[in-house]
Amino acid sequence: MVFDMAENMKPIRVGLACYGMSGSIFHAPLLSVDKRFVISKIVERNTEKSRQKYPYVSVVKSFDEILKDESIDLVVVNTPNQFHFEQGKAVLMAGKHLILEKPVTNFSWEAQDLIELANAKNLIFSVFHNRRYDGDFKTIKSIVQNKLLGDLVVYEAHYDRFRNYIAANTWKEEEGVGSGIVYNLGSHLIDQALHLFGMPQSITAKIGKQRRGSQVDDFYEIYLDYQARANGLQVLLKSSYLVREATPKYLLHGSFGSFVKYGIDPQEEALNNGILPNTPHWGREDKQFWGKLNTEIAGLHYEGHIETLAGSYPDFYTNIYEAIREGKPLAIKAEDAYNTIKIIELAYQSNQEDKTIYL
Fold it and tell me: Which among 356, 358, 343 is positioned nearest to 204, based on CA atoms?
C-alpha cells in the first residue's frame, strides 16, 4: 500500500451504518473524541436521535447513501448480525475500509469471503472485539505473558447477566442464526481466549435455554482443550442470563499460584452514562474490584490484590488510524474474528452431536 503524506494528514471520514446500542454507546462517542476521525454520515431510518449529540453529522435514511459518498473512507457496519456479510461486502466493493461489529458474520465461510475480498482490494478490514481492551483482560494478559502463575493449567472466564425475562423488540431474543448468547456474549470470551492461547486441540460444548419461553440459547459452557501446552491447559468459557449473584469473572490457576477477579470493566457503563473517553482517569477500575493474586515470584510468596490496568477502548480506533494512514499492522485482524466464528460453529456441532470435536 502506497501512502501519500498530504493524504495522511487528513482525518478519516466515517460512515456509521446504524445508531442503535453499539452506535450510540460505543462507536459514535469513541470516534467523536478522536480528532483523526470525522463522522460524516449516520444511517437512521426512522429517527434522527444522533443529531442531539452530533449536530454536524448528516443523518441519512439508507445504507446506499454511505456507499455512494466518495468522501467516506471507512464504514462501520454495526447492524444486526444477519446484515454483516451483505453490507460488509458492499462496503469493500465500494472501495472503502471496513469495520464490522462483532461477531464478524454468522458463518465462517462468509468471513473468509470478506477477508479475501479485502485483501484483493488492498483495504483495511477489522472487527470491533472491544473486550480485548477491557482493563481486567489487559491485566490477565500481562499475568499470563509474564508467567506469574507458572505453567497455566486452568483459565476460566464468565460473562453473566441476570435477565429472567424475555426482552421485547430485539433481534437478539428472536430465533435465528446469529442470535442468542453464544454469538452475543460468547464471541467476546472466545476472542479473548484465542488471543491468549491460539486455537485449541479440541472443543466440548453445552448450549441451551434456561429461561422459560426463551426462543434463543441463553446459556453455554464451552471447554477448549490445549493438550499440547505445558501441563495441558484447560479453558472454560461460560455465560448465562440467570446469574443474580456475581461469581468471579476470571479464575486462573497455575503451577505457582492463582488469580481471581470479580467485577465488570467500567468503560461501557461510563459511555452509557454519557462520560467520554477524554475525561481524566478513563477506564480506571474501583479498588474494590482489583483481582487477588496468590503466587510465588522468584522464590518469594506473594498474596494480595493487584491494581487493574486501565481499560482503553480508544486504542481500537488509534490502531485503525495507524493501519489506514501509516500502514501499521491491525491489532484485531479479520482472521482472528474468523477463528472466533469457527469455534462458535464447532461449539454448536459439539452440543448437537453431544461429543468432543477435535480440530
Answer: 356
Helix segments in the chain, DSSP class H = 5-8, 21-22, 28-32, 64-67, 84-93, 108-121, 135-145, 181, 187-197, 267-272, 314-326, 334-353
**For the segment 178-227, what is each residue's pLDDT rounded down to a tens digit?**
889 999 999 999 999 999 999 999 999 999 999 999 999 999 999 999 98
The whole-angstrom separation of Cα 98 and Cα 2 is: 18
332 within domain boundaries: no
Q: E strands within 196-255? A: 202-208, 219-226, 233-240, 250-254
For the domain that residue 232 is a member of, what is the CATH number?
3.30.360.10
Quick one: 245 and 302 in the same domain? yes
Are 95 and 70 in contact, with CB atoms under 8 Å apart?
no
Give the 3-state secondary structure percentages of the chain, helix then strand then coil, rounded to 5. 35, 25, 40
Domain membership of residue 330 (yes or no) is no
Q: What tens digit of pLDDT does each residue of 306-336 get?
A: 999 999 999 999 999 999 999 999 999 999 9
Q: Decide: 139 and 309 in contact? Cβ < 8 Å.
A: yes
CB-hemisphere CA count at 13 Å for 151? 11
Determine whether 211 is exposed, middle or buried from the number of CB atoms within 10 Å of its CB (0-12, 13-18, 19+): middle
Nearest Cα neighbor of 53 from 65, 44, 64, 63 is 44
Sheet of 58-60: strands edge to edge? 58-60, 37-43, 12-16, 74-77, 97-101, 125-128
Dihedral sign of CA atoms 307, 241, 24, 331 in order:
positive
Is the overall model pTM greater than 0.70, yes or no?
Answer: yes
